[in-house]
Amino acid sequence: MNSHYSHASRWMFSALRLASGWLATVLVLAHSAVDPRPRPESGWQDRHRLLNERAAEAGERAQLIFIGDSITQGWEGAGKEVWAQYYAPHNALNLCIGGDCTQHVLWRLQNGNLEGLNPKAAVVMIGTNNSNGEDNSVSQIADGIAAIVRELRTRLPNTKILLVAIFPRSENPTAHRGKVLSVNQVIRNLADDSQVLWVDFGHKFLDAQGLIPTELMPDYLHLSPIGYELWAKSIEPALNGILENQATAEAQHPLAGDWIWTINGPDGQPISAPLKISVDGNRVSAQFARDASRWLASENGRLDGNSFTWTVRRDRPDGGAMVYQMQGQLENGAITATASTTVDGQEQTAPWTARRP
User: What is the pLDDT of residues 149-179, one digit of tens each?
Assistant: First the structure.
């Protein structure tokens, strides 16, 4: 057996079993809003475990996730009937914990909440709990939200992010409400109209005098059933655009969809596992199954007709990471490709194939 072929195959086979997912985005921890930390008080751990269980159970079936604090967790309370109408058909997941700040959401995203997921869209609304008093400045809160967006882009490269402006709070116009508005003015620049979309409908929670009606926010912070219906209707055009465009793109390109990929294992015998490919214009993304609920994602995917290139990164148990350069093409309904990596200064290459299930 060719030693180059065997070594590269062994590394790729081990990626199915030993890869630990994406490396966390390296952040400069200059302040609390970007420092991933679990909540200091008790009581949230059960909820966190529940969210991890939900993610593992839903896996690839979840087309939509919501990320935030108690306002978004309220979809399970006052908003549950609206949720059932708008989001249950998409197997949506509510990945929110009341009281969370940006740093707590960052920690949760790095500790299981996204494991096994590959949704088409993520709705994000977070930051109001960072705005209390002198907890964090406007720029710090914006940094924290930007860090969450980066984390999602790294861990869920196929997912479009619908970034929702932080809702107004307090019955009357106050300095606190002004702080939230200032944060929104900064974070709207995170939108690129491609992977990150911006939606701001906070004005709909205010009357002509700038007051928040109790029929929308009974405590001037959390929403009523009418408030949740307003939320759903306000993001429906953008969210439907994401979900429909993704479905259309996948249906149109012959590479998109489910595959079974095969590569020779260390003993020279073929090993097969599920592969999912998504196409968005000239971008292509792949998810290689590690086991029943966990997947190894591609990076930097490019498409040229029926030919593709991408990289796959996996963490090594002893530290560091292995990076595989993959390229291939679709011919006669099947994929033929190669995976190359460098081991001890030498490039190792192995062929692999994929077929429809």
Answer: 999 999 998 899 999 999 999 999 999 999 9
Tell me, what's the pLDDT at 212? 98
Which among 106, 24, 116, 118 has a CA at the least distance from the CA of 67? 106
**60 part of a folded domain:** yes
Dihedral sign, CA of 235, 236, 238, 242? positive
Instruction: Return the structure tokens found at 132.
Output: 């209390």
Is residue 291 among the annotated active site residues? no
Of 245, 149, 238, the C-alpha closest to 189 is 149
Three-class SS state of 294: coil
Cβ neighbours around 271 below 10 Å, total: 17
For the stretch 251-260, pLDDT in tens is: 678 898 889 9
Of 70, 234, 272, 340, which residue is the catalytic one? 70
Q: Give the integer Cα–Cα distance in Å for 6 and 136.
A: 53
Residue at a domain's end among 225, 250, 275: 250
Picking from 223, 250, 277, the residue at the C-terminal end of a domain is 250
Please report where in the chains the tokens 């479009």 appear, as a residue: 160
Selected catalytic residue, list 7, 104, 222, 253:
222
**Token representation of residue 277:** 């490919």
Joined together, the tokens standing for residue 284 give 């292509």
Catalytic site residue 70?
A: yes
Q: Do 244 and 283 have their domain in common? A: no
How many angstroms separate the CA atoms of 79 and 71, rounded? Answer: 10
